[in-house]
Amino acid sequence: MVEKTFTQAELAQYDGTNGKQAYVAVDGVVYDVTDVKPWAGGKHHGHTAGHDVSEEITHAPHKKSVLEKLTAVGKYTG
User: How many folded domains does the chain comprise?
Assistant: First the structure.
């Protein structure tokens, strides 16, 4: 994993809008969801990229199983 560290403000810049990359944080790890179709435009089932979705993912049908398919791009410090 790349050793980049993201603060809340830095992560918020990766919201997937206007051609920007889309990143989400889960349990202190930042993942790139830019090329994940369900995250097109930085939105997925009412959630937006650029945020910590650790709590929300626990309620998703897929839970954290999808994380193994994503590229980790750094650590999230909040």
Answer: 1
